[in-house]
């Protein structure tokens, strides 16, 4: 077995394991019903032939219709049996249809949850990779639907194999091994159609970048929070034009492939049916020679039709399965994707107390641009309970440092240590268990006000005392009253009843969210961008009191304001720490920070 076929077989096993492993009772029950209805169908063909012969006898021999006599006749017996078999088949098919809907929806739910879980457990440096992003975009659009499709076609394959074998055995009793010709009649259509499906698959693979762009433009245009700028500046016109141009280009090429597919299917389908009916003439000749009754010929005709259609469905299902397995590979490749965090992790677990945090000779360059060193020889230490500030202008490396501090990027040059343990030696998730962060680019969650804060908690039960405390510290309780909101009020404009907030209010919620997480090490990245100076100082004072002496704070800012409140300040300039010390020490030194202080026009106290 070559590598490609071997991979396809493994992927098929993964699909079957996924479906039958997660939904065993549903899938097995559906297959049993499939086989049961198939048996009823095959037997029903024979019964129909007998009904025709018995009814023909009535038509030829009876001069008048006697209902009582009819109830005791073979014609009624077979007619009643046909009804029972139809009812059984119909009920089985309806139950199978229901089970398919359940499996379909459960598969979507499970796979989407798996994708979210995979992204949630990945590092930013993995998530940002084009290969990873392509898989995340491709899997929901193409892979998940085809997992269900492969399972369904596998069931069709098994059922129609049973139908084919049953029909073939019955046909060969009359016409011998010539029944094998039916399979040959189907092969030309199956071969060409499979090639057309492969061409469509290749087109979709090559179009993934365009589809991602279309999804981005659509999301941009339909996000309610973007409406003001898009509407007032007439950006909607540009977005609509670009969307129409790109989508029309995609559709034109897509329709060419679809036209070729259906044209081939129409022509080859007619050709294979023509060959089948030539074979039916041969069957008719055999029936005449063997003096079969009309009912026997009708049953034989139906068995030929079953054999032909089953062979067609088998080859079609095999083609669909093979093509779809290539789509599905993207889903399993994503779930099994090994990123930095998968390859570099240890078994060490941290204690319950606030850890000593330390960088030693840290150098960092983004994986997609390794020639540019963004952080250079960074060495810094944050003692348990210490409150430090990192000051830097735009482009100094502050945002990159936040990503490293939070574990979103792995360290490969230099060291990042917690309590003397390299983060690469820590068990998976140990770093993130210790930290709570508020980012400069925070998220506006369009949930209830209370959910916006407690969403960062790890428990389902809300700590109401903690919630009230952090709401007070970040002044959420104040704006809640002034705007007329309560804990259950829906925020944002995604939903009709939602209330939009000012950026400053959203930022207060983000700060509350960080505090509610209630960890040992807090990281604040430009946390007061939208908050006035007086409120910002009061909030920071409340945060420092909330943390106490045992928990640590790393405060990252471009502003000199409020730096006096910190135990130590690191001045970050062009990716390097050029100064460090207390406020008083750095002012007396009259170095970089002092000059920045003068530029920001504050007075020395």
Automatic annotation (TrEMBL):
Residue ranges that the Swiss-Prot or TrEMBL entry lists as coiled coil: none
Recorded superkingdom: Bacteria
UniProt subcellular location: Cell membrane
Transmembrane helix listed as a keyword: yes
InterPro entries, sorted: AAA+_ATPase, ABC1_TM_sf, ABC_transporter-like_ATP-bd, P-loop_NTPase, Type_1_exporter
Bilayer topology annotation: Multi-pass membrane protein
Keywords: ATP-binding, Membrane, Nucleotide-binding, Transmembrane, Transmembrane helix
UniProt xrefs under Pfam families: ABC_tran
A GO cellular-component term linked to this record: plasma membrane
Sample GO molecular function, one term: ATP binding
Keyword flag Hydrolase: no
Gene3D superfamilies per UniProt: ABC transporter type 1, transmembrane domain, P-loop containing nucleotide triphosphate hydrolases
Domain ABC transporter: 357-599
Residues passing through the membrane, by range: 78-99, 164-192, 270-289
Main location: membrane
PROSITE patterns linked: ABC_TRANSPORTER_2
Identification of the protein by name: ABC transporter ATP-binding protein
Protein's organism: Candidatus Dojkabacteria bacterium
């Amino acid at each position: 077995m070559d590598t490609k076929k071997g991979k396809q077989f493994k992927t098929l096993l993964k699909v079957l394991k996924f479906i039958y492993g997660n939904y065993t009772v549903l899938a097995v029950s559906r297959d049993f019903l499939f086989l049961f209805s198939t048996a009823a169908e095959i037997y029903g063909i024979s019964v129909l032939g007998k009904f025709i012969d018995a009814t023909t006898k009535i038509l030829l021999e009876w001069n008048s219709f006697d209902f009582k006599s009819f109830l005791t006749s073979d014609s009624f017996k077979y007619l009643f049996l046909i009804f029972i078999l139809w009812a059984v088949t119909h009920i089985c098919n309806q139950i199978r249809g229901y089970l398919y809907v359940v499996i379909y929806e459960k598969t979507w739910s499970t796979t989407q949850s798996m994708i979210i879980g995979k992204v949630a457990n990945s590092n930013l440096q993995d998530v940002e990779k084009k290969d990873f992003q392509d898989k995340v975009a491709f899997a929901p659009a193409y892979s998940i639907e085809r997992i269900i499709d492969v399972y369904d076609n596998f069931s069709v394959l098994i059922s129609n194999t049973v139908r084919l074998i049953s029909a073939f055995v019955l046909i060969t009793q009359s016409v011998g091994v010539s029944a094998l010709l039916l399979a040959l009649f189907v092969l030309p259509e199956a071969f060409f159609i499979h090639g057309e499906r492969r061409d469509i698959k290749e087109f979709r693979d090559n179009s993934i970048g365009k589809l991602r762009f279309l999804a981005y433009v659509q999301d941009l245009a339909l996000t309610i929070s973007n409406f003001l700028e898009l509407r007032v500046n007439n950006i909607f016109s540009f977005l609509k034009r670009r969307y129409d141009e790109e989508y029309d280009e995609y559709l034109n090429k897509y329709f060419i492939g679809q036209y070729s597919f259906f044209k081939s299917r129409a022509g080859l389908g007619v050709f294979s049916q023509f060959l089948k009916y030539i074979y039916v003439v041969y069957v008719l000749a055999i029936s005449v020679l063997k003096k079969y009754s009309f009912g026997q010929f009708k049953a034989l005709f139906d068995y030929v039709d079953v054999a032909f259609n089953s062979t067609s469905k088998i080859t079609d299902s095999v083609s669909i399965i093979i093509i779809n397995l290539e789509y599905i590979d993207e889903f399993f490749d994503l779930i099994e994707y090994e990123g930095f965090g998968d390859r570099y992790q240890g078994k060490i677990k941290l204690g319950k107390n606030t850890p000593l945090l330390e960088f030693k000779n840290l150098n960092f360059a983004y994986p997609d641009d390794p020639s540019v060193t963004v952080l250079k020889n960074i060495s810094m230490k944050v003692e348990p309970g210490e409150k430090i500030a990192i000051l830097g202008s735009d482009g100094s490396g502050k945002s990159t440092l936040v990503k490293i501090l939070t574990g979103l990027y792995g360290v490969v040059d230099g060291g990042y240590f917690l309590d003397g343990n390299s983060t690469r030696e820590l068990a998976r998730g140990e770093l993130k268990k210790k930290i709570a962060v508020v980012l400069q680019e925070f998220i506006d969650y369009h949930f209830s006000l209370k959910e916006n804060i407690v969403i960062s908690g790890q428990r389902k039960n809300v700590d109401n005392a903690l919630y009230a405390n952090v709401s007070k510290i970040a002044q959420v309780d104040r704006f809640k009253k002034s705007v007329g909101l309560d804990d259950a009020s829906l925020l944002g404009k995604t939903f009709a009843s939602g209330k939009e907030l000012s950026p400053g209010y959203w930022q207060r919620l983000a700060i509350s969210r960080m505090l509610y997480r209630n960890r040992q090490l807090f990281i604040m990245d430009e946390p007061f961008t939208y908050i006035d100076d007086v409120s910002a100082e009061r909030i920071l004072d409340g945060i420092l009191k909330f943390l106490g002496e045992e928990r640590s704070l790393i405060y990252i800012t471009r502003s000199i304001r409020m730096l006096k409140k910190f135990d130590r300040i690191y001045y970050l300039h062009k990716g390097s720490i050029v100064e460090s010390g207390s406020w008083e020490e750095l002012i007396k030194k009259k170095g970089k920070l002092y000059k920045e202080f003068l530029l920001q026009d504050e007075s020395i106290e």
